[in-house]
Every structure is written in C-alpha cells, then in structure tokens.
Amino acid sequence: MSSILRIHDLVVSYGHIEAVKGISLDLQEGEITALVGANGAGKSTSLLAISGLLKPVSGQVILDNKDLTKLAAHKIVQSGVVQVAEGRAILTTLTVRENLELGAYTRKDKPQIVKDLAWVFALFPVLETRASGLAGNLSGGEQQMLAIARALMAKPRVLLLDEPSMGLAPLMVKEIFRVLKEINQTGLTILLVEQNVRQALKIARHGYVLENGKIVLADSGENLLHNPKVIEAYLGA
Questions:
Q1: Residue 237 reports pLDDT greater than 70
Q2: End-to-end CA distance of the chain
Q3: Averaged over 63-69, what is the pLDDT?
Q4: 204: domain CATH number?
Q5: Which of 42, 84, 153, 221 is the 20 to 30 A CA-CA neighbour of 180?
Q6: Does pTM surpass 0.85?
C-alpha cells in the first residue's frame, strides 16, 4: 500500500499552551488508522488541524504530494479530506435528506450524487425511512449515522472520524464500527480518533497512541491490542 496522507511534525497551540507537540502520522491508502489516547491527549486538536479548522504553528499535512497546510478548510474538503466532527454537528432544523444533500455541496456530478445517496441509504436504512423528517428528531445513534453519511456524500478520499462512538449505547457502537469496516472495504482511507481503544484497534490496520500531545507508541492495531502498556493504560487487565 502507498501512503496517501502524511502528517509531519505537526505542532498546534491554543495561545501559549502547546496541545500537539510535533506529531507525525502516515496513513496508508485504503486502510483504517486509529489515533487513540485519553481525553485531553490532543486527538481532536490533531484532527482539527488536519482538516484546516485550526491552523498549526508548524508542520505539514500532505495529501499525495499536495501540501494542504495553508489551505482554507473548504479547500481541504474539495481536495478530498473530510471530517465527521465530535458531537455530530448535524443541522437539526433541516430534514435528513437536506443534510445529506448539503454534504455534496462541493460536487457538480449530479448523476453520481444520486447514486451515492442511494448507497448511503443502503448503508444506513433508517435514514431512508426518516429522510423527510427533521434531523433533530433522530436518536443520538441515528444522528451519528447521519453525520457519517453526510461526510460520505462529499466523496472523500480520506475520512476523519472524531469519537464516533461517544455517548452511544453498546449495540449502536457495535453497529457504527460494523459500518466503518464496510465503508473501508470500498477502498476509503479512514483516520479514526477514539477513546474506545479496544474497538478502534480491533478494526484498525495501524494505530498510534497519543499522550500529552506526543505519539508514544506506533504499531499495527493487532500488536497494540496486545501491548502491555496499552493494556495497562487503556484496556484494563
């Protein structure tokens, strides 16, 4: 597999506080990569910097050979890097269908948009049954499905997911991770940020462990699942 997205020496600060301290990640095309760690480790900040919603102090974000670091967030979406934000950020006063159509706002290929809408409805059948209803009336798990489906409508090459299982019931968590595997099998590259370390590493080919803004471990997802340090810190005995 070839590298599709490289993050090199990324430093991100909030005022004088350095939240991300020179991290480097390498995403292989068509694979799931997990970025795991405790709350406050700098995971979400890293994603916000990759997607252009926070400007890094230094470092680079490179898609193929294109430097995205100084691009505006909407230009990064157009380049093919799309984020599903923590907390879902769906538009609750619009219908489910309107949310999905907004996901495709950068695209002009209308026949393919129609096909992709049918695809996301096949992935998440509940969204099709609720398509004309307000997004605000969906359950938390259904809203998470909508947030992922809306991002897919942008036709991403790299999907950034920030805590997709947060606040969901165990059965819904299982369903979300099942669908992520199915999406990945289409060839989509995924960077998954998760506090649910066990679930994330189970589906990830590669993983990075972030502590206090620094990468402290990098290995295959399988090896990290059995790493004594990871077990002690995140998985219990």
A1: no
A2: 34
A3: 94
A4: 3.40.50.300
A5: 42
A6: yes
